[in-house]
Specification:
By secondary structure, the protein is of the alpha+beta class. The protein is built from 14 helices and 11 strands.
Length: 442
């Protein structure tokens, strides 16, 4: 698992990057296609309106020539100017024709500006919409199309009508394309978010499995060591009991018998810890609640651990200041809870001395139990995971501190089962403080 895990993460990451790249490429190509479609439709619009303007200009000239007694006004220049598009149509009329053409070509809501130039040089515009000049100068963001308004070959106006150019500008083409792709972009973003979420959940699951695998291996290693030690001691004691010198010495016989008994109790304690963890996992813990005095439980725990405290040459400062210590609790679990906190302080105490401060005080409807030691302390990573099941803070050697990493997890579970809260504070080299708030009897 350790070797394949980075490979799996790398493959998933590459797959995600590939999917995102395909999405971006697809959207880019689609945007380019829409822009080309817009150019084609704009060309169709300007051609349709341009041809209509040229035809209507020719019809007007023909009608003028057919009227009885009608003469052309003025000289040739006047005729030339009179039948230009800029003179025959107003801005409103041309805009109306363009709007209809845009609708026919499925460009209903498209903004546009237009103008008619008097010659093929796009500098002199006889007719133009209000914002045309502002739009025409920007050819990067705006789309421009033009159509020559030239009379058809062989018509009457071929030499009389001026050569004009019809120009249309569609502003901010990129925004138009993005708006037209709105649903597709939203769907693509949603799909990408789903892929990223799935990627995140997959990575989190893999990390959790790796973490559980490491915890399982540590637990098996610790359990093997914890059970092998008493078994080895019992085996040596049994071999010693077979010695004739031991059998004839009642003092040595009692010593080895007590050794076997103590090691047997030690193994039973380990088995009980594992069974308690299994019960908590299945949520099968049943609390036998009854009225208890917390101070009595604390005193009993300290009495039972007195020999271990003396072996450490430690000092215990007890300040039971709570005026009300009566609560409904399970005596066994409450005793184990406090025992685990004190035992944890003993395990992680410094080699040269052991100092423990236990205090209580009332906090409204709760009694606060504080267990403070001056041991090796914990770093931030350990402090964040100290209540996790099977997690153990190592001090260099895997087995230099005995246990399965179940004690503080059990403490948290039992405190919450009684309706309380527990928190831990620690400073490396200065010690740790565990604070337990338990509800008092109503």
């Amino acid at each position: 698992m350790k070797k394949t895990f980075p490979i799996i993460i790398a493959l998933i990451t590459l797959s995600l990057m590939g999917i995102i790249y395909i999405q971006v490429s697809w959207l880019r190509n689609l945007a380019f296609l829409r822009e080309e479609q817009l150019k084609e439709k704009l060309s169709a619009v300007i051609q349709q309106v341009g041809e209509e303007l040229v035809v209507q200009r020719s019809d007007a000239f023909n009608n003028l020539g057919r009227m009885p007694g009608m003469k052309f006004p003025g000289d040739g220049y006047d005729i030339y100017k009179q039948f230009s598009v800029t003179n025959r149509f107003t801005i409103y009329e041309i805009r109306e024709k363009l709007q209809k053409a845009f609708i026919r070509n499925n460009l209903k809501d498209t903004e546009f500006e237009f103008a008619v130039a008097s010659d093929n040089v796009f500098g002199h515009y006889e007719l133009k919409s209000p914002r045309f000049m502002d739009m025409a100068s920007d050819t990067v963001h705006n789309l421009k199309a033009w159509y020559p308004l030239v009379a058809s070959s062989g018509s009457i106006l071929e030499s009389l009508a001026p050569d004009e150019v019809f120009v249309i500008v569609v502003p901010d083409v990129k925004s138009y394309v993005l708006q037209s792709l709105g649903w597709m972009i939203a769907g693509s973003i949603l799909f990408t978010l789903i892929i990223i979420t799935a990627f995140f959940l997959t990575i989190r699951t893999l990390l959790r499995q790796k973490k559980l695998g490491d915890m399982k291996n540590d637990f098996i290693n610790n359990m093997t060591h914890e059970l092998k030690t008493p078994l080895a001691t019992i085996s040596l004691a049994v071999d010693a009991l077979k010695n004739e010198k031991v059998l004839g010495n009642p003092e040595k016989l009692g010593y080895f018998t007590n050794m076997i008994k103590d090691e047997n109790k030690r193994m039973n304690k380990h088995v009980e810890s594992i069974l308690q963890a299994a019960q908590m996992e299945r949520q099968e813990v049943q609390l036998n609640l009854r009225e208890l005095h917390v101070h009595d439980i604390i005193r009993n725990v300290l009495t039972n651990l007195q020999l271990q405290i003396e072996e450490k040459q430690g000092k215990v400062d007890v300040q039971l200041s709570a005026t009300n210590d009566l609560m409904d609790a399970d005596e066994v679990h409450l005793t184990n809870l406090i025992n685990n906190l004190v035992d944890n302080a003993l395990k992680y105490s410094k080699d040269d001395s052991f100092q423990l401060h236990i205090s209580t005080k009332n906090m409204g409807k709760f009694i606060r139990i504080t267990v403070e030691d001056h041991g090796i302390g914990m770093n931030k990573e350990t402090l964040a995971r100290v209540f996790e099941k099977f997690y153990r803070a190592h001090t260099g050697n895997v087995h230099n501190v005995k246990g399965f990493g179940l004690g503080l997890s059990y403490v948290k579970t039992m405190v919450e089962a009684h309706g309380g809260k527990v928190k831990a504070d620690s400073v490396i080299g200065k010690g740790s403080t565990f604070t337990v708030d338990l509800p008092l009897k109503k």
